[in-house]
Amino acid sequence: MSPHKAPDSSRRSDRSRRAIYDAALALVGETGYARTTIEGIAARAGVGKQTIYRWWPSKAAVLMEAFLDLAARQAEEAEGEGEGEGEGGIPDTGDLAADLRLVLRATVDELNDPAIAGPTRALTAEGIVDPDLGARFVEHLLDPSIQLYVTRLRAAQASGELRADIDPRIALELLIAPLTHRWLLRTLPLTHAYADAIVDYALGGLSAEPRGGAPRP
Description:
The protein has helices at residues 9-31, 38-45, 49-55, 59-80, 96-111, 114-129, 131-159, 168-185, 192-204.
């Protein structure tokens, strides 16, 4: 007889954790954040709710970790398919406008994806009333993306495509804030044409005549 092999508890925990991630993301997408409960996540994942409470203090914490895991997996898949530049950075083809249109179009596609839109809306809204969650949301999800824009805009400054006196952190807000505003308020559809227009307006300016640089706030 072959010796009895003890169950691998780490593999069991990984399977349970993955099931909880998938359940949390699915429920938020189907029923919304307010109606998603720890009990519902546990039932969907096939685990006891005490398992969830042992690993996370709240459903917001579950959703945060599940969404981070989703983002990491999608980044790995994109790299495997040869998308992006470097380690998930914004492409640098030497044409800033084209590179920004590409990344803003990809952002539009993500925000229109129900699998991403539901959790992102939930975390955004909950982060407003929960400062600790909001800080983690900014640190782990927003800041890494913002830094990619800063890096690309600084490269454009170095190559002479952008004015040397602009603040990249302010400049990037001209690109991502309009998308976020329209997406959060659901005023009008998010489209690739809208993303292209944002890039054109941000890089070309709105004034009919060139003006001197405005003082920094």
